[in-house]
Amino acid sequence: MDKQAVWAAVDQERQSLAEFVALLTDDEWTTPSLCSEWTVRDVVAHLTLTGIRPLPLTAQLIRYRGSLSRTSRETARRRAATTPTPELVKLLHGMVGNRRHPVGTSYLDPLADLLVHGQDIAVPLGRERAMPAEAAVVATQRVATMGYWFWARRRLRGVRLEATDADWSFGSGAVVRGPIAVLLLVLTGRRARLDELSGDGLPELTGVRG
Fold it and tell me: How far apart are CA 99 and CA 149, in angstroms?
């Protein structure tokens, strides 16, 4: 996918996810997500903040002593706590067409963020949310080869991941096979949908910390 196609995929995910969460019940909004310590509501709030301008982001980083993970978590929680549900849905929908991404990140990162967080929301609710194969391959390759946040090469040393529904593989060693969507979750430290995986590398994989 070229850059234009990636942004088109981002827009599609933002649109479809906004429609998805608009139908959730009040109880579903407060359900713990796959993302540790975040509710579904927190995850949605986070996705409305990915286009934040550099200056406000810098101010938040200073507030949280340079910790990107803490900055991300606390700004999402603050927006989640202070923004009515209909407004959160509106804000997420309003992200369609936004071409910003945080300083120091790639234009590929919003796509990976949306695909993974879409599963963070859907899986705990027992809901199906399809992940477009081509977009999933691009996002999975990005996550597999980046350092900070996921460190996939280090964490999954000795394991080879092979997609069963796409032309994608990564690493060397004992093989783990499964849908590209599940492999993306594995690479980002999620331990959901592991029953969809197979291969000699499963013991090593399940022993890896997220």
Answer: 22
